Amino acid sequence: MTQYFKFHFFFCQYAALNHLKYNRSVGYIEIDLACNYGASMAGEYIRSLSTIEIASGWWEAEELMGRAQHDTFEALKEIRHRSPFEWVEIDSNNDRMFINSCLLRYCKEEGLEFTRSRPCRKNDNAYIEQKNYTHIQRLLGYLRHDTEEELHMMMEQSSYV
After folding, report:
1. What are the pLDDT digits (tens) for 114-127?
2. Which of the residues 62, 64, 69, 114 has an alpha carbon 20 to 30 A from that of 47?
C-alpha cells in the first residue's frame, strides 16, 4: 500500500469518527462573534454572538454593543437558556472573548466540554462561519452598525430568523 493510500485511509477513518461524534448526538455547539464594523474597527459597534448546534443545525444569536467579556458571557448563557436541548460541548475560535477564565469556569461547573480551533485558522469552525454569512452578513450587509436603534432592530430581526 502506498503512502498516499495509507494516509487517505487513515484520514477517511478519522473523518468518519469525527462525523459520528458530532452528528450522531445533539449538544455540540460552535460559537463565534460576527462583527458589524463596516470600514472602521474604531470605537464601539454591534457584534452578534452566534451559536449553532452541529447535528440539528439549530441557530441562535444575541446582539451586543462592544467587546465586554461579561456581556458576551451573559449573552451565551441567555442563548443556552433558550436552547431546546442540553449542551455537551462548546467549541470556539481563539478570540479572547471566549478563551477566558469566566467561560472556562462556567464550563467546568456545568460539566461542559470546552474546545477551541487551531491558532490562526479562521475557518476551523465552518458550521458557524456559514451561518454568520447566511443569517447575519447577508441580511445586514457589511455596513457599520453602531447605534442603539440599530441594536434594537437587529435584536428584533434575529428573533425571526
Report:
1. 888 776 666 667 78
2. 114
Separation of alpha carbons 125 and 97, rounded Å = 16
According to DSSP, the residues that pair with 63 across neighbouring strands are 48
The C-alpha atoms of residue 131 and residue 60 are separated, in whole angstroms, by 10
**pLDDT at residue 96 is higher than 60:** yes
> Would you mind telling me the total number of residues written for the chain in this entry?
161
Answer whether CATH 3.50.50.60 is correct for domain 25-158: no
Cα distance between residue 65 and residue 79, in whole Å: 16
pLDDT number for residue 79: 93
Ordered alpha helix ranges (H), 63-142: 69-82, 101-110, 126-131, 138-140
Residue identified by cell 430568523 is: 161
| Domain segments of the chain as ranges | 25-158
Element (H, E) at 155: helix 148-158
79, 19 contact by CB (below 8 A): no
Residue 1 has a pLDDT of 44
